[in-house]
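The protein record quoted in full:
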Amino acid sequence: MAIRAVVFDIGGVLEVTPDPQMREFNVRWEEQFGLQPGELDERMARMEHLWRAGSLGECTEADVERGLCEIVGLTQEQVVAYMAGMWKEYVGTLNVELANYFRGLRPRYQTGIISNSFVGAREREEALYHFSALADPIIYSHEVGIAKPDPRIYTLTCERMGVRPTEMIFLDDAERCIEGARALGIHSVLFRDNAQAIAAIETLLREHA
């Protein structure tokens, strides 16, 4: 069956982001806030329910900031600084080569995005990188209340794009997300680097022309 849609992940694929070492991130802020080693991690553990809720759209950014004040014990000024730092890490920098390749797939193929995200991500990423010019739909976990590798998020994407799973290619840097898509019959590519990903996608497009 011919490929009709190509769908990309964001973090670690369209965005070049730091390795997700929250401990290292928190060490920098412990020093800045004058806290003991490990103290910020310990306090942040009490926020786990809010971080998860934010990824599924079950709370607002204001709820998260309030939690940082009331649960973690940061001042409002510290919260503003910490969240600014977090968002800077979150959005990383644009993978320009891959974004240009992705853009060039249109109009031959539909293009879409599936991202495990956090409340507030769409506004920041759109302002910086204009992903809406690259893909439609953009499926954010915090907007649909489902995260990869839950099969429902892939099914939802197929429905919104009007394609069958076997008519889609999906690119992600997380093995578990790739496995989730493959289980539904989606042609899936594990991202390692730009050259490898583009070559793998082009091979699939030729094989399923």
About this structure: The longest strand covers residues 110-115.
